[in-house]
Structure formats: structure tokens, C-alpha cells
Design goal:
2 domains; Rossmann fold; single chain; two-stranded antiparallel ribbon; about 210 residues; HAD_sf; five-stranded parallel β-sheet; alpha/beta
Length: about 210
């Protein structure tokens, strides 16, 4: 096995969280129909994750169909921008950088939420290479996402460790030749440090 020189992190559930979850965020607008609405709009969003189409007009039409009169920009900001970065996760990102590892982002996002993460949250300055699905033109778990990510990182896939909270995405990365492990924020950060150790990366616990 080649030594790991880069760590590619997923965003949602790994580096960032949504307080209360998606359903609770949507309930002020849709009540008990929030779950039904979100599952429908997530399905409609899939092409936009790969950079095909414009999500906001589609979301606006679906909101209108459900009788929501609030402007789509307001709903989108209240729900889709409800992102809280994990201080502990980003402390680990910085510790990896201090140890000389490349630290990168690999996330499925359509262009509006991805743009918010890149600029308002400042993620472009926190990672060496940022791989957003809408920009790559392909979404996880397709192995092509990881092939392109490795090309942009300019590293052999076997030297990249990918960390995600979804089993299918971990499997897609493995099929593309990356080392990969599953972890999410709900587990606490000790298992993440253990996962890194399994791949030869020793870090102190985040302060």
C-alpha cells in the first residue's frame, strides 16, 4: 500500500452539520409535509448536483405547488444555508496541514449551496483543492467523481484517504482506487482519529 499523503473530506455530516436537521428546518414552511417535500425536491435536485440545470426555479415551482408563498430566496437561505461548521473537524483539517498532508474537500452540492460554502463560509481558503460535484460534472458515488478529484489533486488515488458519512460514497471511492473510510459527526471525533491512525496518520485529539 502506498503511504497516504492526502485526505479528502466530505462536507455534510463530516465537516458541517445542520442544527435540528433538514426536516425541522423545513417545518416552519410546510409543517407535517416537510419530509414529503424534501424527499421530492432532493430527487429533483439530482441533475443539478452534477451541474445540469438551475435548482432555484425548480425549487420555486415546487414550493408554489405546495402553497408556500414565501420567496424562494428566503426559504433557500433559511434552510439550505443553515450550516454550522464543526470546530473539531476543522481543527483536524488544520492539524493534517501542519503535518504536511494535503487536505481537500469532496462534496455533492448544487451551485448555489456550493457557492455559499466556497465564499460566505470561506471553504475555498481552508482546503488545498475543492471538488464540488456541480463543478466536476459528476456526483458521488460515481467512481468518476473520485477519478477527477484525484486528477485535480494531482496525486495517485492510492495516496488519498477519503472520509464520508455514506457507505455508497465510500464504496465509490474504493472502486476508484482511493483508500476510504466511513465516519460521521454523531460518532464523536475519537473514531475519526482512529480511522486516520489505521492509515498511518497520527494526530493529537482536537483541543
Amino acid at each position: 500500500m502506498a503511504p497516504i499523503r492526502h485526505v479528502l473530506f466530505d462536507a455534510d455530516g463530516v465537516l458541517q452539520d445542520m442544527p435540528g436537521g433538514w426536516y425541522a428546518a423545513m417545518e416552519p414552511y410546510l409543517g407535517d409535509k416537510a419530509r414529503e417535500f424534501l424527499h421530492r425536491t432532493w430527487k429533483e435536485e439530482l441533475p443539478m448536483l452534477a451541474g445540469h440545470g438551475d435548482y432555484l426555479p425548480l425549487l420555486a415551482a415546487t414550493l408554489a405547488e405546495y402553497g408556500v408563498e414565501t420567496p424562494v430566496e428566503v426559504v433557500y437561505r433559511d434552510v439550505w444555508h443553515r450550516i454550522v461548521p464543526s470546530d473539531e473537524s476543522f481543527a483536524i483539517v488544520e492539524a493534517l496541514r501542519q503535518k504536511g498532508y494535503g487536505v481537500h474537500l469532496g462534496t455533492n452540492q448544487e451551485k448555489y449551496r456550493g457557492g455559499h460554502m466556497r465564499t460566505t463560509l470561506g471553504y475555498d481558503e481552508l482546503f488545498d483543492v475543492s471538488c464540488y460535484s456541480y463543478d466536476l460534472g459528476v456526483a458521488k458515488p460515481d467512481p468518476a467523481f473520485f477519478v477527477e478529484a484525484a486528477r485535480r489533486i494531482a496525486a495517485d488515488p492510492s495516496t488519498i484517504l477519503f472520509i464520508d458519512d455514506t457507505a455508497a460514497n465510500v464504496e465509490g471511492a474504493s472502486r476508484a482506487g482511493l483508500a476510504a473510510g466511513r465516519w460521521d459527526l454523531s460518532q464523536g471525533h475519537d473514531p475519526l482519529l482512529a480511522l486516520l491512525r489505521e492509515h498511518g496518520i497520527e494526530l493529537p485529539p482536537p483541543a
